[in-house]
Amino acid sequence: MKYFNRLKVLFLATLLLVTACTKNESTTNSSDQSEGSNNGKEETYELVMAFPVFGPVPKDMDKVEAAINKISKEKINATVDLEPISIGAYDQQYNLMLTSNEKLDLLMVSFRTVDGLISKGSLHELDDLLEKYGDGIKQVFEPEYLNAAKHNNKHFIIPNYNEMAESNGLLIPKKYVDDYGIDLSKVTEFKDLEYVFEQIKKNNSDIAPLVPAGVGFSILDHYRWYDSLGDSIGVLPNYDNDLQVVNLYETHEYEEHLNLLRKWYEAGYIMKDAATNQDSQIDLLKSGRGAALISGMKPGIAEDESIKFGMEMVATPLTEAYSTTRNVVGLNWGIPITSENPEKAMQFLDLMFSNEEIARLLHWGIEGEHYVEVSENVIDYPEGVDGSNSGYALNQNWMFGNQFGSGYVWNGTSPKLAQDYKEFNQTAHLSKALGFTFNAEPVRNEYTAVSNVIDQYKLSLETGSVDPDEVLPEFISKLKAAGIDTIIKEKQKQLDEWASHQ
Amino acid sequence: MTKETRRWQWISHICLASISIFCIIPFLLLIISSISDEMSILQNGYSFLPESFSRDAYLYLWEQRGQLIRAYGITIFVTVVGTSIGLALTALLAYPLSRKDLPLGKFFTFLVFFTLLFNGGLVPTYYVYTQIFDIKNTIWALIIPVLLVNGFNVLLMRTFFMNTIPDAVLESARIDGAGEFRAFFSIVLPLSLPILATIGLLQTIMYWNDWMNGLIYLTDPSLYSIQNILNRILTDIQFLTSNSDYAAQSGKTISQLPSATIRMAIAVVGILPIIVAYPFFQKYLVKGITIGSVK
Question: What is this structure's pTM?
Answer without folding.
Answer: 0.80
